[in-house]
Amino acid sequence: MAAYSRTQLLLLLLPLSLLCLCGFGSVLGLKAASGPAEPPNPPVLRAADPPAKDAPAAAAAAAAAAAGASPPRRATGWKLSEEEACREDLTRLCPKHTWTNNLAVLECLQDRREETDIAPDCNHLLWNYKLNLTTDPKFESVATEVCKSTIAEDVHSQGEVIACLERALVREAEQQDHVRPIKEECQRAILRVAELSSDDFHLDRHLYFSCRDDRERFCQNTQAGEGKVYKCLFNHKFEEAMSEKCRDALTTRQKLISQDYRVSYSLAKACKLDLRKQRCSLDTNLPRAREARLSYLLLCLEAAVHRGRPVSGECQGEMLDYRRMLMEDFSLSPEIVLHCRTEIEAHCSGLHRKGRTLHCLMRIGRGDRSTTVDSVCQSALQTLIQSADPGADYRIDRALNEACESVIQTACKHIRNGDPMILSCLMEHLYTEKMVEDCEHRLLELQYFISRDWKLDPILYKKCQGDAARLCHTHGWNETSELMPPGAVFSCLYRHAYRTEEQGRRLSRDCKVEVQRILHQRALDVKLDPELQKRCMTDLGKWCSEKTDTGQELECLQDHLEDLVSACREVVGNLTELESEDIQIDALLIRACEPVTQAHCHDVADNQIDTGDLMECLVQNKHQKEMNEKCAVGVTHFQLIQMKDFRFSYKFKMACKEDVLRLCPNIKKKVDVVICLSTTVRNDTLQEAKEQRVSLKCRKQLRVEELEMSEDIRLEPELYDPCKSDISRLCPNVAFGNAQMIECLKEQKKQLSQRCHQRIFRLQEVEMTDPELDYQLMRVCKQMIKRFCTEADARNVLQCLKQNKNSELMDPKCKQMITKRQITQNTDYRLNPVLRKACRADIPKFCQPILNKASEDSELEGQVIACLKLKYADQRLSPDCEDQIRGDSPGVGARLQTGPTAADALLCAEEAAAQEQTGQVEECLKVNLLKIKQDGCKKEVLNMLKESKADIFVDPVLHTACALDLKHHCAAITPGRGRQMSCLMEALQDKRVRLQPECKKRLQDRIDMWSYAAKVAPAEGFSDLAVQVMTSPSKNYILLMIALSVCVLFLVGLLCGRITKRVTRELKDR
């Protein structure tokens, strides 16, 4: 009797509405009655004691008898309305047309309990009716057919009949072929009975007896009623101590809930009003069975939450529990069991607990090339993820929660527990030191599916739902469209975020920020970009099978851009173009470049809109000390990718797209576009066109691109390709960056192959015309340019540096670089545009034979310069040309540091160690002229001695020693044509003039050197001989001897002529 008295509460806890199923009452031998279409709100609990936890079924029967219960329920004529215990309540609360239907009466009385009290005896009667409902002959007949292999002869034993039918119903949903199909009406009746037992686990006799011990172990302090014991047992389902029998019974119960949410008392009660408010049961196009599915309820209410509509906290709490339940046990989703059975058996067996099987399927579903899942299974996984919606609260995914707990506690502790931004925070720390491997795998497995439906990121949906509806014509959260599937919505959003210029078609600022966030996350793994993975799966296998490290797959696809199939090439091109506008999309690169960004690019990095400024800044600071190897490699790789298509350089594209379409149509590669536009600018400049064809903004950006290309030979394919073999042969250990490789090839120019030599020569010709493109010169002399050449035109920078080369403030490294460039200019007059212009009349006049012998592509090896210097020594050049020859001489010492004369420079190694600042190397070589073995070197020193006669500035040692004497005695003498040298010689011979001792000594040394040079350097022609005689100190003696010789020859000729004449006359007389 005590057990019976504690049953009052159970009567008050009937689950959701029975009216929506009242039409199925006939299966129990009852006539259908009409009822409302919406499930009514479950009643509010009132104080009453439940039956004893361990009360046997007999106690319930005894209780029913003590209460004067009605005859056995299988009596077909028995009616609840005829019972005395409920007649008063029935008359007061229920419409008369429901009295003939027991289920309609049951629903009515339960619904009205919220508004008024029902007599205790009536409550007892109703509870007893529910307890004995499964003894109906209809159930037994179905059970005999469906469950004959699993039920003992006594089909009435402890709820086995209904338990067997429930299992059969579950199996039918999970199987493709139905051996013994259960009729739809019977299916509804089974779910109805499960619903009737949802408030108290005692009413589910099979589960009660299966879980008695487990209830005592895990839920001893949990009172029965309102489905509390069910929920407690569900929470402990995967505990090690849970018995398998109880776990199986709980799983069956959960599977029934997934088929009809009303089988969960707490969920149905908590969400009844919200379901009505959000109109989640009024879609006439859907069958009633679908509306009852747990997934439908979750999707409908989640859509309301994501749209900002009010959903009660109690309902959201229940939803959270059941979403977690779906993620923990894949078997609760019949679609997963049905369509993913093969994958589970092959790859995920033995992982049934705590969501591991589901994550195993998700890992396979990511599309690793070794294993894949069927498209139907993939769709089932996507549907389950949408129903569970773990993106809104990471705690729903137990496997992820457990794997990432340590990361969340350290990296994301500033974010409120359960906040959707936790997942975003975890993605930001992906591949960092704070991330653990297990968390990384679980996170990527989940993000793979979230990335395929934009709605599964709640923050993105919240910020962009208006833009998506306006621009992409999307529907509700749980609605799909064939024209705009979920995966295509994000593509639509980012197109409007980056490519739309029309004001009305742009995204809102908040939405664009979220789109950028998602793009940053997707850049971490190509599998997070659905479109990229779909179109490029074949190419990934073909070209990138070995590129498995972080970020390598996308880099590999970019490297093989020309080899990709058209669909893949298009999506990779679009992504690369997007990165060029906002390099922060490449999260791995940005993470690697954080030190240099903070030190040099923090201003542009803080901008909400990038527009290519950050990458430009990183390129400009690529060789700063803060730049690490990973960042440098990433920046260089992006520069190399930009060469494949000018669209990949956002700033260049925006500045020059109109010029490219007009002047360079059908050209796609960036390097070809740059060459095309540069050639156009150069031609317009040389022809002094009134108006440049290339716009000003394009010319400015073109200059930036040219400067960037000059830093690395790989950025100039026309130069790099012909020189690859030379690089491996001559410069194998030289780095590509900082123009070091180009500088190495310049220094080894004489050993280069013909094609590479020609390309290097053309490069030098361009650099000498436009010194800003000479990366090494501009880098080494950056401070000196600021000091000496701030007002100089960009194209005259080298000329300015040469003029200030001997300044005391000149940096030694810059001076050495200037000397190198002077040496280069002395190898060919075409490399010296100023000299070429100044000597344009002298070169064809004096050096035409050399030009006739040379081909257009061949280098003149300094022949024209040497020719002009000889004429300079002879004082036969025009004034402009003479000035250039005098000012452009880098010094013999510098010239001897390269080429075949380097061996002879070892004679003066000590002087060479002091560089060539003081001219000591030249002085040493002059003194050791006889010891020089190579003819080329000897000739160069002799030429230097010869040139010093014509201009003292060519001889830095003599000029330094005699600087004061020149100022005092020869200030009025114009430099050039040997005038100042002659002045000093006259002063040396004039005893009245007192020269400085050092100057006097150096002048005497020069006289001796010139005399000595005349002995070892015989004239090559009559002009050279005449010059030597006229410049010799013994000129008068030589001329006298020549005159005497002529006289002697004349006399001898006269005598010989008389003798000859006499012989002829004798012959005539004969």
TrEMBL record:
It is a single-pass type I membrane protein. Keywords: Glycoprotein, Membrane, Repeat, Sialic acid, Signal, Transmembrane, Transmembrane helix. InterPro entries: Cys-rich_GLG1_repeat, Cys-rich_GLG1_repeat_euk, GLG1. One of its GO terms (molecular function) is fibroblast growth factor binding. Cys-rich GLG repeats lie at residues 181-241, 310-369, 434-501, 506-565, 626-685, 693-747, 751-809, 932-992. It is found in: Golgi outpost; Membrane. Residues 33-52 are annotated as: Disordered. PANTHER family: GOLGI APPARATUS PROTEIN 1 (PTHR11884:SF1), SELECTIN LIGAND RELATED (PTHR11884). This is Golgi apparatus protein 1. It comes from Dicentrarchus labrax.
